[in-house]
Design brief:
Strand content: 5-15%
Strand order of the largest sheet: 2-1-3-5-4
Order of helices and strands: HHHHHHHHHHHHHHHHHHHHEHEHHEHHEE
Helix content: 55-70%
Number of helices: 25
Oligomer: single chain
Length: 550
């Protein structure tokens, strides 16, 4: 039986990780790399910062907004980035990611009994592409991920000899994690159940252990539900367990485009090499993405070969079932939703760190040259991914400047903007101009000029996300109605550089929301019914055109 890591080592792992991540955030000056979803989350958290007693709970992030809202409120009190929650969230993520470093260190140390292996594995985990990315931007997944990761680590260490107390602790920690982000429940729950069902116990005890796990999950959820009863937005236990987030939207569904996006998600989880958003860009990055996936496959195969003689060890089997079970269930679910999304890959891929740790433990007793090579390889993902993140360095101030330039060139009281919907500038306008969503055929807009809302916009992807049952003709007709409504009310319609996209590029972006088949109808409507002349060019924001009827 190996010993737990000394407290001073855990504290050192936390402090070093936090210092590195905070330094990286300050150096990058961009907390919206690849994804700007964190900006929307920080806006949604503003009521929790201003007045927690009246703020509204979110069913799918039941504990996230209370946690980060109150944390940002504390940072305000300390004078740290006061009033800028979208920056504060990145530093809070760095804090939670550093707790994740502690989880990895403690888990590997207990599993192998070796501080060197634990340290190198912690560096390897923190350096993985999506782990590092989500540790330095403002996305909302990190605290939930760390709690679920902790529950997986404990399950791997304990479920070889489960007791009801151990199972209950795992269940409570796991539930608190998915109550921060609801989707975290599904990849890991089947793996936890399977690990209990194959434990070296009589079948009756195994079934009883599963019941204890389920009871701890329900009890924790029920206590949280009762604790918030009567609060604004509080929901019942059934609704907490099933929020249906993302179901029956354009994000869900099966298509061959998802295979390319799966390649992107798995490859970039390890090494940030490109092809992040759509299937077309993934195809263009086929070679580097494939090499990143092959490197992961090599780690898996090597660890299996070295550990195969120990395959009957109960603890090793429990670790494999928990982490590989989460991988299998998670990628099935990801293929249905958004396999390219860093959030969706984060909690299903920590098997890679576990495999690397076991590989290190098996090989480090070898000669000094091999030990040095393994140490260098443990640091290599971090070095690679920091260099990859540096490409986006300084983008936050650049987008702030681009937003101001657009406001000066196109007065918001007389302009309606047509975007695809993924452009970063839409996030900044939403945050800085007015908290107004795209029209989506539901707006009653007054004649120009009109100061409210300041940000008036139409999004091409809105029809695909919110109306997955539409045909291409219906989608195109809805867009046309919104454009003509703006022109009829006297507004200038300003379209982003989406206007210059080829049908293939438009299809690639529509493919991310299972709507590539609508491309022809939308493209023909835009270019047959309207004409555009270049009106503005910005180094960061791109080229803008003014749209008019033909």
């Amino acid at each position: 039986m190996t010993r737990t890591a000394p407290a001073w080592q855990l504290l050192l792992a936390f402090v070093l990780s936090l210092a590195v991540l905070c330094g990286l955030i300050g150096w990058l000056q961009n907390v919206h790399i690849i994804s700007s979803n964190g900006m929307y989350k920080s806006i949604q958290a503003e009521p929790w910062i201003a007045s927690p007693s009246t703020a509204r709970l979110d069913p799918s992030n039941y504990l996230f907004f209370p946690l980060y809202g109150i944390s940002a409120r504390l940072l305000d009190m300390l004078g740290i980035l006061r009033g800028v929650p979208w920056k504060q969230f990145a530093y809070l993520n760095a804090f939670w990611a550093s707790l994740g470093t502690v989880v990895v260190y403690a888990f590997v140390h207990r599993l192998t009994g070796r501080a060197a292996v634990a340290a190198l594995s912690s560096v390897f985990h923190l350096g993985c592409g999506f782990v590092l990315l989500l540790s330095v931007i403002s996305e909302d997944i990190m605290p939930g991920y760390v709690l679920v990761l902790g529950s997986m680590a404990l399950a791997g260490l304990w479920f070889d000899r489960p007791t009801w107390k151990r199972i209950a602790v795992v269940g409570v920690l796991f539930t608190l994690g998915w109550l921060i982000e609801w989707r975290l429940m599904f990849p890991t729950l089947p793996a936890l159940v399977l690990a209990l069902l194959v434990a070296p116990e009589p079948i009756g005890r195994r079934l009883g252990h599963v019941l204890v796990l389920v009871a701890s999950i329900l009890a924790t959820s029920g206590i949280v539900q009762l604790s918030w009863e009567g609060h604004n937005g509080a929901i019942g236990l059934h609704d907490i367990l099933w929020t249906g987030k993302g179901v029956a939207t354009g994000w869900a569904g099966l298509s061959w485009d998802k295979a390319w996006m799966m390649l992107s998600g798995i490859g970039n989880y390890f090494l940030l090499v490109g092809g992040y958003v759509d299937p077309r860009s993934a195809r263009e990055a086929l070679l580097p993405l494939s090499l990143a996936v092959l490197a992961q496959a090599a780690i898996f195969v090597a660890s299996v070969i070295l550990l195969w003689p120990r395959r009957h060890e109960p603890r090793l089997r429990a670790v494999a079932i928990v982490f590989l079970g989460t991988l299998g269930a998670g990628q099935v679910l990801n293929f249905y939703s958004q396999p390219q999304d860093p959030q969706m890959q984060l909690n299903v891929m920590p098997w890679l760190t576990v495999a690397w740790a076991l590989l290190l433990a098996a090989l480090l007793p070898s000669r000094r040259g091999i030990a040095i090579m393994l140490a260098v390889l443990s640091f290599a993902p971090f070095a690679w991914n920091v260099a990859a993140l540096a490409k986006w360095r300084g983008d936050d101030p650049r987008w702030l400047a681009a937003t101001a330039a657009l406001e000066k060139r196109f007065p918001p009281d007389s302009s309606v903007f047509l975007y695809f919907g993924y452009e970063p500038i839409t996030t900044w306008k939403y945050a800085l101009w007015s908290r107004a969503w795209d029209w989506d055929n539901k707006v009653a807009i007054p004649p120009a000029p009109s100061a409210e809302p300041k940000f008036k916009w139409i999004a091409v992807n809105a029809g695909a996300i919110r109306h997955p049952g539409w045909t291409g003709a219906e989608h195109a007709a809805a867009l046309k109605r919104d454009i003509e409504l703006a022109l009829d009310r006297g507004y200038r319609v300003i379209v982003s550089d989406m206007w210059a996209w080829s049908p293939d590029v438009l299809a690639a972006y529509l493919g991310t929301v299972a709507a590539a088949g609508r491309t022809d109808a939308i493209y023909r409507m835009l270019h047959d019914d309207f004409r555009a002349t270049e009106a503005f060019r910005d180094q960061t924001g791109g080229t803008y055109y003014e749209l008019q009827r033909r």
